[in-house]
TrEMBL record:
Recorded family membership: Belongs to the UDP-glycosyltransferase family.
Record keywords: Transferase
Official protein name in the record: Glycosyltransferase N-terminal domain-containing protein
InterPro entries in UniProt: Glyco_transf_N (IPR058980), UDP_glucos_trans (IPR002213)
Record CDD domains: GT1_Gtf-like
Origin superkingdom: Eukaryota
MF terms in GO: UDP-glucosyltransferase activity
Ranges that cross the membrane: none
Keyword Signal belongs to the record: no
Lineage summary: Eukaryota, Viridiplantae, Streptophyta, Embryophyta, Tracheophyta
Species, as recorded: Dendrobium nobile (Orchid)
């Protein structure tokens, strides 16, 4: 979707405020939303904090300097110390212990006061706010200033619908066994899940107050923007629209907003590896011969699990397969680094290890990629769908187990590694919950082998890739929905003004 040529053609463009939740997996798609809205004729203000702005600096520089899009990145102070957080703790992945998550959410609500002051004085006035559903405080701020507000849901519609139906039917309160499989009621494509797999923070008694605030804000919103597209999740989208009785605009895959190689390489944060070196290595590999292994920005494996993954990759690589493995755990662990150095020596020529942040969208788009072992976070899953890459699914927590069911059971473009419980349930001492190296090897070979079953998976993945691209092109479903969001923003603000 490229509207940069006409981004300044409207003399009175809609002014849309974007407020992401401060977690890397939430920031990344919201930056893409900014890029797309600005390319399609809107004036965009992206509100964040100094630490988060520094993290997405490559994307900011690209939008402001290379593409020259009308996006204003506004940095407002985040008062970490006022709630007992360490200085600079402005992102979820900087939270050092679980007991600091509530203070972080408190700091977010205080951040709302800064946002309100800014919006009161901003010029031109805001026509609409699009905000992450986790930022429940936005609803009260928007209503106090008579600004229409739209929720942005980062996860798949399949997951959002599942969560809605589980709450509607009070399913989790009626199930005592965390490990018993059950079907989600009313789901268009029935799948089985466990309570342990779908229980989120919002479902826990100690988070009841915060949960009610989130649900209250969702009800007050004018509509919902989602990172998906009509042709991918039609039945879920249709059902979700009926359930909430609001406008729902799917505008994805948002990752396809990054068209050139540099934009793909810097999606999220600056890469931890020289992209020229990485591309040269990939170019040397045969098509569909490389397995990419990465588990997202928040998930961390204990060293016992890393060893098992390494054993699986090493034994699978002996059958002419190559791999790229992102090991963020090496950044802060001497023990991991020592083991990893030995592993690299043994697999020299077969694999590449990236310590830290990887240019994932760029890697997934390379012709050498044959498979992606993923934690099933929606950003990663959807990047793979947009690139037409088959997946080995290894969910950890949150929406990831439901996304696995979508990939494996509904879309049928993935193979489950075999993880049954969230990573919090894994006992490193006893080994309970660990996925063994032999299981890793088997799923890698199953995904990468081109037999009849594998060929069908690849065919379906390529078909979805083409549908994704068409959705984002002029006249496509996501292209048209994006225009509708902008039109709605302008019209809704006028409607509110007429009522006052």
């Amino acid at each position: 979707m490229d509207g940069s040529s006409n981004c300044n053609s409207d003399p009175n463009p809609a002014h849309i405020i974007l407020i992401p939740f401060m977690a890397q997996g939430h920031m990344i798609p919201m930056v893409d939303v900014a890029r797309l809205l600005a390319s399609s004729g809107a004036l965009v203000t992206f509100i964040t904090t100094p630490v988060n702005a520094a993290r997405i600096r490559p994307s900011i520089d690209s939008i402001e300097n290379s593409q020259r899009l009308p996006v204003r990145f506004v940095q407002l102070p985040f008062h970490s110390a006022d709630v007992g957080l360490p200085a600079g703790c402005e992102n979820v992945d900087l939270i050092s212990s679980p007991d600091l998550f509530k203070p972080f959410m408190k700091a977010l609500s205080l951040f709302g006061e800064q946002v309100k002051l800014y919006l009161t004085a901003t010029n031109p006035t805001a026509d609409c706010i699009i905000f992450d559903s986790m930022n429940s405080w936005v609803g009260a701020v928007a209503e106090s200033l008579n600004i229409p507000h739209i929720i942005f849901h980062g996860p798949s519609c399949f997951y959002i619908l599942c969560a809605h139906l589980l709450k509607k039917h009070q399913v989790l309160k009626r199930i005592d066994d965390d490990y018993k499989l059950f079907k989600v009621p009313e789901l268009p494509e029935p799948v089985e899940v466990m309570k342990a797999q779908v229980m989120s923070l919002k479902d826990r008694p100690e988070w009841e107050k915060e949960s009610e605030e989130i649900y209250k804000t969702e009800k007050s919103a004018c509509g919902v923007v989602m990172n998906t597209f009509e042709e991918l999740e039609k039945s879920s989208l249709d059902k979700f629209r009926k359930e909430i009785g609001k406008k729902v605009w799917p505008i994805g895959p948002l990752s396809l907003a990054n068209k050139d190689l540099d934009s793909k390489a810097m999606r999220g944060k600056a890469s931890s590896i020289d992209t020229g070196l990485l591309l040269s290595w990939l170019d040397s590999k045969a098509p569909n011969s490389v397995m990419f292994v990465s588990f997202g920005s928040l998930s961390r494996n204990p060293i016992s699990q890393l060893v098992q993954i390494g054993q699986g990759l090493e034994s699978a690589s002996s059958s002419e397969l190559s791999f790229i493995w992102v090991v963020k755990e090496a950044e802060n662990s001497e023990e991991v680094e020592n083991w990893l150095s030995e592993f690299e020596e043994r697999t020299k020529g077969m694999g590449m290890v990236i310590r830290g942040w990887a240019p994932q969208a760029m890697i997934l788009g390379h012709v050498a990629l044959g498979g992606f072992m993923t934690h099933c976070g929606w950003n990663s899953t959807f990047e793979a769908i947009a690139a037409g890459v088959v997946m080995a699914t290894w969910p950890r927590f949150g929406d990831q187990f439901v996304n696995e069911r979508l990939v494996v059971d509904v879309l049928r473009i993935g193979v489950a590694v075999g993880a049954k419980v969230p990573i919090f349930y894994v006992d490193e001492m006893s080994g309970e919950g660990l996925v063994k190296g032999e299981e890793v090897r088997k799923v890698v070979e199953k995904v990468m082998t081109i037999d009849e079953e594998g060929e069908e998976r690849r065919k379906r993945a390529k078909e979805l890739r083409e549908k994704a691209r068409k959705a984002m092109e002029e006249g496509g479903s996501s292209f048209e929905n994006l225009k509708r969001v902008i039109q709605f923003a302008k019209g809704e603000k006028k409607a509110i003004g007429m009522k006052l």
